[in-house]
Amino acid sequence: MDELGEVGEFGLNHIPAKNAARLNGPEGSNPSLSATNTERAALGVAMSEETSLRYWIETLGCPKKHVDSVKISGLLHAQGYGPAESADTADLVVANTCAFIEAAREESIETVLALAEVKRDGARLVVTGCMAERYGDELAAALPEVDLVAGFG
Fold first, then answer.
1. What is the average per-residue pLDDT within 30-47?
2. Please, are residues 73 and 34 in contact by the beta-carbon 8 Å criterion?
3. How far apart are CA 5 and CA 98, in angstroms?
4. Do 35 and 55 form a contact (C-beta atoms < 8 A)?
């Protein structure tokens, strides 16, 4: 295990909580996983031979969200995407949200807004997870900063 976490078959699988702040996630957020999006056609993100697209996933909530993020990371890796060093260097930024209790919903919204502020020009912001599943259309209408709201369900 290196200082960031375990490096598995699909890239960075786990980032210990002690390193969360070092990874430029919003203050107080849960540890993040780097990842991009399998929906690149829907997002209008093209991939060229010369450019390796980079992804970042910010994972909030329960262990299921972490498993979902690892799955997304694996799918993206299989499509040729690589992990970004931070949200502000990614071509695609994914917020894997939680909506279990009010505090989790508030943290998810705050995280999405923070990621929208740090993402670079031309990068896409995707919201997935429980908030996207429960409040998809409402969330898309309320957050024009988001390029795609996509639940797993």
1. 40
2. yes
3. 23
4. yes
